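Data deposition worksheet. Section B asks for the primary sequence of the deposited chain exactly as it was used as input, without tags or linkers unless they were present during the calculation. Section C holds the resulting structure in token form. Section D is free text for depositor observations; keep each observation to a single sentence. Incomplete worksheets are returned to the depositor.
Section A, Depositor: J.P.
Section B:
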Amino acid sequence: MALESNLRIDGARLWDSLMEMAQIGPGLRGGNNRQALTAEDGEGRALFQKWCEQAGLEMGLDQMGTMFAKRPGTDPDALPVYVGSHLDTQPTGGKYDGILGVLGGLELIRTLNDLDIKTKHPIVVVNWTNEEGTRFAPAMMASGVFAGQFTQDWAYSREDADGVTMGEALENIGWRGEETVGKRKMHAMFELHIEQGPILENEGKEIGVVTHGQGLKWMQITITGTESHTGSTPMPMRKNAGLGMARITTLVDDIALSHAPNAVGAIGHCDVYPNSRNIIPGKVVFTVDFRSPDLAVLEDMEARLRAGAKEICDTNGLGLEIEIVGGFDPITFDEGCVSAVRNAAARLGYGHRDLVSGAGHDACWINAVAPTSMIMCPCVDGLSHNEDEEISVEWATAGTDVLLHAVLETAQIVD
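Section C:
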């Protein structure tokens, strides 16, 4: 059977599934709060499992709680093609970030069932545990363990704000499997995701063909000064840790702008001590997020930050500690998988362009162990990690149509 442009998924059915999943863990303004390994996450997993079983899929579960729903292929020796993303959300997350990739994969299977299409390679829909990294840091945790980036014991030991470990939470919601993490072999993997940026919408394109993923460096900076009274401490005698952070904030912006347009940088989380209105801060702890698709640029940004931060703190009599707390090198996705996505978009007549992903995704880790690529669809105003995150039925359908065709080209239709 040849791949024809009229081979499409059921967009209305996909949208209904997205809206039903969104009823679990509702947010305050129409989004979702379904953080990893909470009761809400467990409820979302149960619904996904029910739908998979109704579609005739065999569910597997590994020791990180990652779900693998398999549709058999005709060749028992052929490695599976994987599709999927994650069901967990940010505390004030949207209805589509990650979820579209999982339920788009399920819709792909439903379409194959409807049309009685068989493939040589099995197809597996995957829900990776704790992609967001909000409750348990870092992000992309289960896919990272799968790809050998983190050890399972280390991942299990991560704690949330209440001191609950990831391993304990996994047991508590009943989603710890027995399968050894990483034992599965993949023919390829495709991840469908919303763009989380404004480029596709601004250019009127339905599809982003993701060729690369930005590298990332997360640094935690601790500045120590001296707590003292804001009213009675002379300006020249102050050791103001907050002033040091402010000047480093400007430095981060200047460094990122010097590598425009592809590099970015910002201060994210910050804690100020003692955080009182009439006490000069004696300590601040904050994070710096640098990203670029060029490893040399990432290394330059880190080196310049270290040198500049030291000069700022030395000049102002402040102590300085810088710790790398996360990151990965830039990703180049598999040329064959990228071509399958590009071919699918062209065959279906969707406007498309190459993209570099600015965010981290499970596909970034899996790319180290299997041929991988990503498909992106637009989101309104590029807004994500926000309850106002929005996409259209048409965008979701187009992305999943391309996913269907890319997967079928790779999994090989059997006549």
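Section D:
The chain has a mean pLDDT of 96.
Residues 61 and 77 are 21 Å apart (CA to CA).
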